[in-house]
Design brief:
Number of helices: 2
Largest sheet: none
Oligomer: single chain
Number of strands: 0
Order of helices and strands: HH
Distance between the termini: 14 Å
Strand content: under 5%
């Protein structure tokens, strides 16, 4: 079960990264509007949550 969730989290992280790259590129070149800045902040927050979840799963598997 945990292995399935780890796979899901990794896939979600991959998809988030694909969405974030163009937004970060625009941000670095000052070509981003306020809506896209908020979208990027939301995606980064979601990415952090998923990375924490992945870390917790990894730690739990290491302890077993």
């Amino acid at each position: 079960m945990a292995q399935d969730r780890i796979g899901e989290v990794r896939e979600l992280l991959f998809q988030l990264e694909r969405k974030m790259r163009p937004l970060e590129w625009d941000l670095n070149r000052n070509q981003i509007n306020e809506f896209k800045k908020k979208e990027l902040a939301r995606l980064k927050e979601q990415q952090g949550q998923l990375q924490n979840e992945l870390t917790l799963f990894s730690q739990d598997n290491g302890q077993k």
